[in-house]
Amino acid sequence: MLVAGQSDVHMLAAHPHRSRSGSPPEVNVRLMGPGWVTAFSEETDLADCGITDLTAWPGTLVCLRARLPEPIRERTRYSIAGTGPAGSFTGATVVPSAPVITEPADGHRLPPQSEGDYLTVPIHFEVPSDVAMLHSEVIDAFEIQSDGSRKPIGPISCEPLVLGLEAGRADLILSRASPSLYKRIYLGRPVHLSVAVLGLGRNYADFVEASGRYPLRQPWPSFGLEGAYGYFAGAAPSDPVRIIVRPDPSDDAQAGD
């Protein structure tokens, strides 16, 4: 997944039918951007590829990283070429345009909700025509200590993950298992959360739709890749919006701006 604004990209490769004690797949891949070529030359932690629960993934895995000469651009075509256990493969994708959160404004203040261990954040958004799927995201979260310092908190869950492209609005439900956001705020600790929406391109949207169908038809359909099963896709995040939740929104003394 190529995400606009990022200068490091990661690729996950898997041997889904091998024993977990076996060796990971050997993959050699080049990424081509506008006027440059770079290689996925560094093996890195699986968490960098979003893998935190190995029990959900059969076989052996490897996460590779490529460092880019410039950040990924919106509305730009990228391609890859390489070899893997099944032979050579190629791919191409165009990174979509970034969606925009129109409401609330950055720095919006909310009082805590009176019930439940979660927060409801209404948002309004605009989606460019080249976005095929829209995800919600919590970028970061921290609380303001009595001395004005920031203490990160997390993980924060955000639902719904998939937002309707045509809806134009959504109520994001933000929660934290323990200790809850509700308890933190009512202990007098202002909480700052940054939310964004991520616009994903057609390759990824098609892959998500097809991957829920079994058996997969042969030959494998293409999701930006030819010669390998998987996807090569682009995404672009909106600018994040900071939400400040505190017992007394009119008191700016502890806002930590």
Describe this structure in words.
By secondary structure, the protein is mainly beta. Helices cover 6% and strands 43% of the residues. It contains 2 helices and 20 strands. The strands form 4 sheets. Strands 1, 10, 12, 13, 15, 17, 19 and 20 form an 8-stranded mixed β-sheet that branches. Strand 7 (77-84) and strand 8 form a beta hairpin. The longest helix has 10 residues, at 202-211. It is globular and about 60 Å long. The model is unreliable at 251-257 (pLDDT under 50).
Q: How do you describe this structure in short?
A:
This protein is mainly β.
- Distance between the terminal alpha carbons, to the nearest Å? 33 Å
Structural class assignment: mainly beta
Radius of gyration, in angstroms, nearest whole number: 21 Å
Mean pLDDT: 86
Question: What share of the residues does DSSP label as strand, in percent?
Answer: 35-45%
H/E series, N to C?
Answer: EEEEEEEEEEEEEEEEHEHEEE
Query: Unreliable segments (pLDDT under 50, ≥5 consecutive)?
Result: 251-257
Number of strands: 20
Quaternary structure of the protein? single chain
Largest sheet: 8 strands, mixed
